[in-house]
Amino acid sequence: MANSLQRRINMAAGREPADLLITNARVVNVFTGDVEHTDVAIGEGVILGYGPRDAASVFDAGGACLLPGLIDAHIHIESSMLSPARFAELALPRGTTTVVADPHELVNVAGVAGLRYFLDCAASLPLNLRIAVPSCVPATPFEDAGAVLHAEDMAPFMRDPYVVSVGEMMNFPGVVAGDPDVLDKIQLGHESGRGIDGHVVGLPDKELDAYMAAGIRNNHECNSIEEMHEILRRGGYILLREGSAARNLGLLLRGITPANARRCALCCDDRHAEDFLRDGYMDHLLRLAVAQGTNPLLAVTLCTLNAAEAMGLHGKGGIAPGWDADLVLVDNLHDFTVLRTWIGGRCVAAEGRVLAEMPRVDASLLTGSVRPAPLTPHALDVCVPSGRARVIELAAGSLITRNAVRNVQITAGGLFDPAANPGICKLAVIERHKRTGLVGTGLLAGYGLHGGAVATSVAHDSHNIVVAGDSDKAMRTAVDRLIALGGGCVICRDNEILAELALPLAGLMSDDEPAAVSETLAVINRLAHTELGIPSGVDPLMSLSFMALPVIPSLKLTARGLFDVDRFCFVSVDAAQ
Predict the structure, then answer these.
(1) What are phi and psi of 195, to 5 degrees?
(2) Which of 555, 554, 550, 528 is CA-nearest to residue 541?
(3) Residue 15, class by beta-carbon neighbours within 10 Å (0-12 exposed, 13-18 middle, 19+ buried)?
(4) Helix, strand, or coil here: 268?
(5) Which of 376, 444, 450, 511 is the most exposed place for a label (fewest CB within 10 A)?
(6) Of 286, 268, 278, residue with least CA distance to 542
(7) Cβ–Cβ contacts within 10 Å for residue 353, how many?
(8) How many CB atoms lie within 10 A of CB 365?
(9) pLDDT in tens, 174-216
(10) Is the bond preceding 135 in cis, omega lying within 30 degrees of 0?
(11) How many CB atoms within 10 Å of residue 27?
C-alpha cells in the first residue's frame, strides 16, 4: 500500500509517467461549476491532476466532455429483471459507473443467501456496485415473504467493504412508534458507521421530525415540492426519481434552488430493461433534466458529486487529484451521448460496447422459489354482499393508489361479477414461498384490463404472485403457466397464453441477454395495451407489481387481504363492513 501511495505521489508530481493521460478534453469541474479545456492524468486508479505530462498511455478525447462517472443513488437491480452481471452490461456503456443497489426484492425471497449473492457480484463485477442491506424483510409484519431479516441477521454484513447503508426504512410507522426491531436495525447502521436510507411519504410535522431524528438521511418518495422542502429543511437529502412507474424528476426539479441544490441527487429506483435499452440510464436522467431547463453543470452535479455525498461514497463523484478515476466521456452537455467509460482508470466500455469481462456468480440457490399451494375452487372469489366495494384505484405514473368506494354489480351469491362491472377487474395475491395457501383478493380500477389476465411473480415487496383479470378462468391460466415457468410474467386472453417471460432467479431475474429480455417485455406490454385494453399511460407489469406493496398509500392487497395503508390495518372489500 505504501509503495502504491508513493508511486501515486511520484506520478502526480511528474517524477514518474502517469498510467494514462486523457488529452484534449472539456473537463467538467463539479466543485466550481466550470468547464476547462485541459488534460487529465490518471495513475494507480485515481486522478493525479490536470495538464500535460508524460504517460504510459495517451487517449485523445477529441474535444468531448469529460465528466465524473455517473452515479445512481438508489436502485433495485431486480426491477430490471436482469442479473447484476447483465445489468452491468447496460450500465457501463451508458456512463454509469456506480450504483447503490438495495437488493430488497431478492432478499425478501431468498433471505441472506440473496444478500450474499449480491455481495459476491459486487466483489467480482467491473461496475462499482455498492449495497444497502435491506431493512424491511418483510416490509411490514402483515406480509408473507420468503424470509425474515432481523438486526442480528443483518449484523454480519454491515462492515462489509461493499456495504454503504441500511436500506430504505419503509416501515415509517414502526420508526415513529419506536418498534424495537426497527430501532435495532437503525442502531446497527449507526454503530457500523453506515447511513440509514429513507422511504417516507405524507408524514405530519412531528411524525416526520421523529422519523428524521432516528438519523435517516435521504428520501426518494416525495410527491410534492412542499414535501421535498420539508425533508430538506430537516437536513435530509432528496433523491429525485425517474423510474419506469414512478416519476417525480420533472416535478421536483422545480423545487431546486441555489440554496438547496447541494442536497439533491438523482436516482432511478425501479426501471425495466426495456427502458434502459430504449432511453438509457443515468444519461437519460441528465437529458431529461436539461430538457426541462436545468443548467447542464447542475444536472451533472446532481448525478455525480451530490449522489456520492448523499450516499457516503467517498472519493467518487468528482475529477480532482486523489479522487477515483471513474470517468465518462460524452459528446456534449445537451445530448450526453456516451462515448467511453472508465472505472479506476480502466476503460470498461466504448462506443456502446462493454469491454470488461463480466464474471458470473453461482445463482443456483435462487432457483425453484415459486411454490404456492394449489388454488382452491373458490380462491379467487371476491365477496361484496352489500354491493358497496372498496376499490384500489390506480393513478397513471404514480405508486400511490386511491381508496375508492364504488357501487358494484354482484351475483345472487354476493360475489363481484367482472362481466357486469366494466372498468373494474379482479386482483389476487397468492402466497408462493411456503405453500401456506393464503390468497388475498380485491378489486382494481384504472388498470383498464378486459378480456384476459396478467400475472407476475414480481410483486413488491414480498414477491408473491399477483394476478389481475376479468375472469377466474383467465387468471388461473396465467397463474398455472407462471408456476410452470418457475416465476416471471404471463399475459393471456381467456385461456390462451399470448406471451411470457421466464424469471428463474428467485422469480425476479433472468440471466439472458438484456436485448432478449427487453424484446419479450416489449411484446408483453404491447399486447397488454392492444389486446387487453390497458391504457398507454399505465405500465402493465410495473404498475401491477406495486399493487401488493402495503407501505405506499392508500389501499393495497397482500396475500392476507386488503390493506388500508393510511389506517395501517386490514379492511374488508365490502365497504359496509
Answers:
(1) -80, 175
(2) 528
(3) exposed
(4) coil
(5) 376
(6) 268
(7) 9
(8) 15
(9) 899 999 999 999 999 999 999 999 999 889 999 999 999 999 9
(10) no
(11) 20
- Which of 331-335, 405-409, 563-567 bottoms out in mean pLDDT, i.e. has the lowest? 563-567
Quick count: other Cβ atoms within 10 Å of Cβ 505?
26
Neighbours of 193 (CB within 10 A): 9
199 backbone dihedrals φ, ψ, rounded to 5° = -165, 95
Cell 440554496 -> residue:
259
In terms of Cβ atoms closer than 10 Å to its own Cβ (0-12, 13-18, 19+), residue 213 is exposed
Q: Note the pLDDT of residue 245.
A: 67
In percent, the amount of the chain with pLDDT more than 70 equals 99
Could you give the CA distance from residue 20 to residue 42 in angstroms, rounded to a whole number?
Answer: 5
pLDDT digits (tens, 9 = 90+) for 248-286: 899 999 999 999 999 999 999 988 888 899 999 999 999
d(CA 80, CA 77): 6
Query: The cell 441477454 sits on which residue?
Result: 513
pLDDT of residue 398: 75
Which residues contact residue 365 at a Cβ distance below 8 angstroms, ignoring those fewer than 6 apart? 110, 113, 117
- Buried b / exposed e along 444-463 (16+ C-beta atoms within 10 A): bbbbbbbebbbbbbbbbbbb
Q: Which of 506, 511, 426 is nearest to 466 (CA)?
A: 426
How many alpha carbons fall within 13 Å on the CB side of residue 306?
A: 23
Cell numbers linked to 495:
385461456
Q: Of the candidates 468, 164, 174, 126, which has an alpha carbon nearest to the alpha carbon of residue 314?
A: 164
Whether the CB-CB separation of 482 and 455 falls below 8 Å is answered with yes
Grid cell locating 190: 449507526
**In a 3-state reduction of DSSP, which class is residue 508?**
coil
DSSP codes, 309-376? HHTT-TT-S--STTSB--EEEES-TTT--EEEEEETTEEEEETTEE-S--PPPP-GGGSS---PPPPP
